[in-house]
């Protein structure tokens, strides 16, 4: 999917996600519609001014601050680019499971419906199905990543199997796929102890990941050594160019 700017009168899921993101950034309620209207345009103009971007009432993902990176209390580190799938994932922040088994978030169901085996079993209709891997795959698909490594594979619904796809990285870069494990599964946030998300930041104490099914929602969350988490691998989509080296972030 090309990086198309969103103008007035544009409609669709990207506008709906942007509306939610701008509302969080501005601390205002912009509603949940999918139309790029005057209210959203005004908020985008404010955002562009705040980040020193050229004036305008349209939205396009800038190369560094692809989304309002204020949601975890810090600005996007200068000189670090994020891939388009990371920008898309940022706009999904706040999606969460429905209350109880009878209520399912249709957005999470959309993540799960990529996988034929989950559709056949009926698990794709239930947002309580483990969906961290489905979320990562969905973001990559929306960004136009066409590698068979990441799309339509049965194993990609499971976090651990992301260790076997794409290119292995010795050091993480913002937006790369990160697989973590907690040996004390009963005390972790996943039943198996395995989890996958997109790398945001990290140091010796642990990593921060942007991912799905983190506390039953899409958010940025810490996976700390002190809590039993270890990083098992960093991966990069096959055929996709790694970003140019930049200043490393730090917490």
From TrEMBL:
Protein name, as recorded: TIGR02594 family protein
Record-linked InterPro entries: CHP02594 (IPR013423)
Task: Extract the NCBIfam families matched here.
Answer: TIGR02594 family protein
Q: Native species of this protein?
A: Caldovatus aquaticus
């Amino acid at each position: 999917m090309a990086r198309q700017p969103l103008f007035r009168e544009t409609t669709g899921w990207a506008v709906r996600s942007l509306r939610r993101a701008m509302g969080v950034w501005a601390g205002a309620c912009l509603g949940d519609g999918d139309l790029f209207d005057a209210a959203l345009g005004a908020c985008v103009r404010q955002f562009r001014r705040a980040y020193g971007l050229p004036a305008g009432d349209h939205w396009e993902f800038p190369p560094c601050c692809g989304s309002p990176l204020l949601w975890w209390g810090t600005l996007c580190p200068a000189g670090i680019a994020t891939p388009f799938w990371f920008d898309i994932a940022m706009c999904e922040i706040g999606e969460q499971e429905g209350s109880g088994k009878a209520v399912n978030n249709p957005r999470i169901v959309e993540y799960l419906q990529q996988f034929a085996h989950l559709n056949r079993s009926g698990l794709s209709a239930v947002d309580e199905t483990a969906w961290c891997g489905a979320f990562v795959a969905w973001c990559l698909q929306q960004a136009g990543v066409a590698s068979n490594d990441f799309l339509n594979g049965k194993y990609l619904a499971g976090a651990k199997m992301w260790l076997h796809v794409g290119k292995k990285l010795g050091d993480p870069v913002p937006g790369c796929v990160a697989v973590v494990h907690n040996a004390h599964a009963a005390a972790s946030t996943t039943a198996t102890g395995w989890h996958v998300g997109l790398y945001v930041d990290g140091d010796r104490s642990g990593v921060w990941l942007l991912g799905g099914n983190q506390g039953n929602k899409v958010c940025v969350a810490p996976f700390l050594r002190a809590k039993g988490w270890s990083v098992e691998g960093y991966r990069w989509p096959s055929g996709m160019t790694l970003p140019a080296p930049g200043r490393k972030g730090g917490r």
